[in-house]
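BUG: 3D viewer hangs when loading the predicted structure for this chain

Environment: internal workstation, default settings.
Expected: structure renders.
Actual: progress bar stalls at 90%.

Input used:
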Amino acid sequence: MPSPRSSLVWLQGSACGGCTMALMGAESPDVLSALDWAGIDLLWHPSFGEHSAAAWTKLMRELAQGKRALDILCVEGSIDAAGTDPRSMAYWVAPLALRARYVVAVGSCASFGGVAVLGRPDTVALQQRAHPTAAALLAADWTSAGALPVVNVAGCPPHPGWITETLARLAKGELGAADLDELARPRALTDHLVHHGCARNEFYEFKASAEQLDELGCLMEHLGCLGTQARADCNLRSWNGSGSCLKGGFPCINCTAPGFERPAHAFGHTQKIAGIPTSLPSDMPKAWFVALASLSKAATPERLRRNARAERIVVGPKSAKR
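Structure tokens produced before the viewer hung:
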């Protein structure tokens, strides 16, 4: 007998819509094909749904009352704190979360508050389990009917593959508590660093640094790149066929982490003390990094030194001597 299909509802709170835009940009397969392959029936998404207001309200009430099964509830964006008005998102999210087998926070706004809560004390994240940066709708120890906390697919926005793969694993019963990190993010995504696969890694190894955004060198020393701390596989899988923030010439701002929207300094700027960056690789002693950086700079090939400060390759590699 065929496996039963899972039902999914996607609600959109206070957000820019970037997570939905990322999802709709899914390629090979597209999002609807990916959900169908995973055995997921999309009951509602604001960009795909065709329900009238009355039909939408009827569907939500049936789900909230348990008259229809709900396997996965996805929430995009932060949630208004007051939930007594049917026009508010919290009014619907709270009872649906109690009925859903799994609840997924899509994007950093739903996961941790993100950009959406800046200057908005009336909006909250879905759940805060550690390092809270905003209030939350659900208690820190809350778990869904499927015995999982809110699964945080963080990012601003998240890669479409992060979303569809997480939903597929939930639908197939292949995502358990041990598969989530300390912030309830899927470890398949956060056991990597953005640094992994970065096209600028050779420049990083020799500390050949760019000083302007249009230069080829490493962006960590002067331009605020947090790729050696950010946990995501951004440079191991392509965005829109080929890209990533770093490939586009922009430093990583660690958008999968709580509080990224409130940096201690301007984006694109590396804060330093006595000339030493304060943001260094998270799992390396600072003294060792400083020592190795000094050795690396002393050994920097002229090719990398010159190319790091250029807009394009100006010195090519030499052929190996035989």
